[in-house]
Amino acid sequence: MSEVQSSAPAESRFDRISNKILSLRGASYIVGAVGIFALLAATTVTLSINEQLIVALICIAVFFIVGRHKSRRTQVFLEVLSALVSLRYLTWRLTETLDFDTWIQGGLGVTLLLAELYALYMLFLSYFQTISPLHRAPLPLSPNPDDWPTVDIFIPTYDESLGIVRLTVLGALGIDWPPDKVNVYILDDGRREEFARFAEECGARYIARPDNAHAKAGNLNYAIKHTTGDHILILDCDHIPTRAFLQIAMGWMVDDPKIALMQTPHHFYSPDPFQRNLAVGYRTPPEGNLFYGVIQDGNDFWDATFFCGSCAILRRKAIEEIGGFATETVTEDAHTALRMQRKGWSTAYLRIPLASGLATERLVTHIGQRMRWARGMIQIFRVDNPMMGPGLKLGQRLCYLSAMTSFFFAIPRVIFLASPLAFLFFNQNIIAASPIAVLAYAIPHMFHSIATAAKVNKGWRYSFWSEVYETVMALFLVRVTIVTLLFPSRGKFNVTEKGGVLEHEEFDLGATYPNIIFACIMALGLLRGGYALIFQHLDIISERAYALNCIWSVISLIILLAAVAVGRETKQIRQSHRIEAHIPVTVYDYEGNSSHGITEDVSMGGVAIHMPWRDVTPDQPVQVVVHTILDGEEVNLPATMIRSARGKAVFTWSITNIQVEAAVVRFVFGRADAWLQWNNYEDDRPLRSLWSLILSIKALFRKKGQMIAQSRPKNKPIALPVERREPTTSQGGQKQEGKISRAAS
């Protein structure tokens, strides 16, 4: 085993961090109470329009001056400033902009106001959640592996193909942990004979229950009764772990017996539909990065980390104390964490991706997955509301409340998009305000909300993209939201399909037709407004109203078209996704000639290597030797060259047995540092982000078969000299093939 530091310093560090968290939480409550009082006092000050406009300009100037500094205090100050401006806006909306001349106009105005109240409520809760992200670091384990706990690794599966599941199983079998203290279990709810044979072949254990009651939660509960490990690592069947998963993530579980859950990020090595289908997708952070990069880290400060169903270690004692995984809702993960925290258990989050899986390949699959998440979180809101019941602290209640009510976004999103149509089609002015008042109150509120979010989210989520993500799903989720609120027991667990291919480019009408209809209606409203401005004789008030609503409808139309563009599915025929990786290797031909190189990308299908080896015949068998990633131990991977040109050679793996396949899995997915560049994106710049959103609409007009530019920056590998030497041999005189070290990188 690799050498690990002594646990004594870890204990003192743990105590210091715990005390710091407790003191910061108390200070946050005090500052928050004082801040709320100050904000309420500030929002009641009466100003004229001109005075309010001056205050708005001063606040914007303060933002730019203070925002130049990067610190936690700066972020908190900007959040407080944003809250102040937003509360001024809310006061103005409540007191001066509602018009009840007709019941229709009054009803529409109140509807829009309620949507805005929801948005402000979510804004303030997000500021609360991210007040002080914990940025927890790993704690080292005891230097004596005999002191390490026993671990059961659960890999639940139902109808996924063996080709997907076997990679996760082989990755789990290669995790660096004492062999007598870890067991890998395939939990097969499909009861398939080929899975049982594979488990026997690779050395994993196989569990199949007699029924499928309660879906994934029932599968996990059945496995708990048939295993005995102190801790349980749960991996979705497509989430391939790095070899150092347990050594990096287990330290906190060992040092603090009150921690029931250690959650790590869900990272995906394949592109999601937004990245794959939009021209700017690869330059934009994935949708899930905001949650795992910002929100979960903020939740950790409040001891409110959520269990996300995979890539997490759970303490068996805590699971057994609550009677097993929750089965009342279709999101058994978050509900299970809530139940553990009600019993007094703590949870933790480590913002280091230690596994990677497959993103949803198709937009319709992505929408279906989010519909299940929304249904499950709303079910928890109804049947086990975090604001009621015993056992939770205020911070935990608010973090859970934010997570659950965030899935109510569909109805407010549709209201925001459709609101300008009330005036353009029916002449119902649902915001009774002059343009100068809008400039003084509404524009500053929008500016500070967007600009402050850009400071908080940095490179985890770009401005305006949340609107696109929500709009893609909104019209599908409206019905789910209403039905689940009224009938929380309805709905069932659905497995998200992974690993598919798309032979031909196509437009997914089934996933986009609601937004296509919506966009057509919005375009008609815009034409109606343009006609009125150009050809009708309007007074100055009507002219301004038409102009404002036309601008609003243009913004709505851009968002709708971007959401529709995601449905233009690009061709995806690769069974093995390429992963960018720059790893030093040495390649030997059959005569023993060698050449050093650096990989450009790797996959389960093969590897591309930058190397100055030119006179090589295609279809030539070679050995790719990896030196550095396995703690100094060389691993030989048999391969076949398929082409070589301009200093780059491409090889396919020659996988002849399960040992070689396991070695390739560890090389491609098991490196401890494999996913550390998961947030290799520039910090958010709102204007640039808005422009990229507009450019994304180009996907609608892409010619059939036209490739999308993938301009994500890559590091250029360095050139290495040619070197000839004898092939490396083991002590027995034979080349090492598929050998795997059990030491952490």
UniProtKB/TrEMBL annotation:
<feature type="transmembrane region" description="Helical">
    <location>
        <begin position="546"/>
        <end position="566"/>
    </location>
</feature>
<dbReference type="InterPro" id="IPR009875">
    <property type="entry name" value="PilZ_domain"/>
</dbReference>
<dbReference type="GO" id="GO:0030244">
    <property type="term" value="P:cellulose biosynthetic process"/>
</dbReference>
<dbReference type="Pfam" id="PF00535">
    <property type="entry name" value="Glycos_transf_2"/>
</dbReference>
<feature type="transmembrane region" description="Helical">
    <location>
        <begin position="74"/>
        <end position="91"/>
    </location>
</feature>
<feature type="transmembrane region" description="Helical">
    <location>
        <begin position="516"/>
        <end position="534"/>
    </location>
</feature>
<keyword id="KW-0973">c-di-GMP</keyword>
<dbReference type="GO" id="GO:0035438">
    <property type="term" value="F:cyclic-di-GMP binding"/>
</dbReference>
<feature type="domain" description="Glycosyltransferase 2-like">
    <location>
        <begin position="153"/>
        <end position="323"/>
    </location>
</feature>
<dbReference type="Pfam" id="PF07238">
    <property type="entry name" value="PilZ"/>
</dbReference>
<feature type="transmembrane region" description="Helical">
    <location>
        <begin position="103"/>
        <end position="128"/>
    </location>
</feature>
<feature type="transmembrane region" description="Helical">
    <location>
        <begin position="21"/>
        <end position="43"/>
    </location>
</feature>
<feature type="transmembrane region" description="Helical">
    <location>
        <begin position="49"/>
        <end position="67"/>
    </location>
</feature>
<comment type="pathway">
    <text>Glycan metabolism; bacterial cellulose biosynthesis.</text>
</comment>
<dbReference type="GO" id="GO:0005886">
    <property type="term" value="C:plasma membrane"/>
</dbReference>
<keyword id="KW-1133">Transmembrane helix</keyword>
<dbReference type="GO" id="GO:0006011">
    <property type="term" value="P:UDP-alpha-D-glucose metabolic process"/>
</dbReference>
<keyword id="KW-0997">Cell inner membrane</keyword>
<dbReference type="GO" id="GO:0016760">
    <property type="term" value="F:cellulose synthase (UDP-forming) activity"/>
</dbReference>
<comment type="function">
    <text>Catalytic subunit of cellulose synthase. It polymerizes uridine 5'-diphosphate glucose to cellulose.</text>
</comment>
<feature type="transmembrane region" description="Helical">
    <location>
        <begin position="468"/>
        <end position="487"/>
    </location>
</feature>
<feature type="transmembrane region" description="Helical">
    <location>
        <begin position="430"/>
        <end position="447"/>
    </location>
</feature>
<keyword id="KW-0472">Membrane</keyword>
<dbReference type="InterPro" id="IPR005150">
    <property type="entry name" value="Cellulose_synth"/>
</dbReference>
<dbReference type="InterPro" id="IPR001173">
    <property type="entry name" value="Glyco_trans_2-like"/>
</dbReference>
<keyword id="KW-0808">Transferase</keyword>
<dbReference type="Pfam" id="PF03552">
    <property type="entry name" value="Cellulose_synt"/>
</dbReference>
<feature type="domain" description="PilZ">
    <location>
        <begin position="572"/>
        <end position="669"/>
    </location>
</feature>
<keyword id="KW-1003">Cell membrane</keyword>
<feature type="region of interest" description="Disordered">
    <location>
        <begin position="708"/>
        <end position="745"/>
    </location>
</feature>
<protein>
    <recommendedName>
        <fullName>Cellulose synthase catalytic subunit [UDP-forming]</fullName>
        <ecNumber>2.4.1.12</ecNumber>
    </recommendedName>
</protein>
<feature type="transmembrane region" description="Helical">
    <location>
        <begin position="398"/>
        <end position="418"/>
    </location>
</feature>
<keyword id="KW-0812">Transmembrane</keyword>
<dbReference type="InterPro" id="IPR003919">
    <property type="entry name" value="Cell_synth_A"/>
</dbReference>
<keyword id="KW-0135">Cellulose biosynthesis</keyword>
<keyword id="KW-0328">Glycosyltransferase</keyword>
<feature type="compositionally biased region" description="Basic and acidic residues">
    <location>
        <begin position="736"/>
        <end position="745"/>
    </location>
</feature>
<dbReference type="InterPro" id="IPR029044">
    <property type="entry name" value="Nucleotide-diphossugar_trans"/>
</dbReference>
<dbReference type="InterPro" id="IPR050321">
    <property type="entry name" value="Glycosyltr_2/OpgH_subfam"/>
</dbReference>
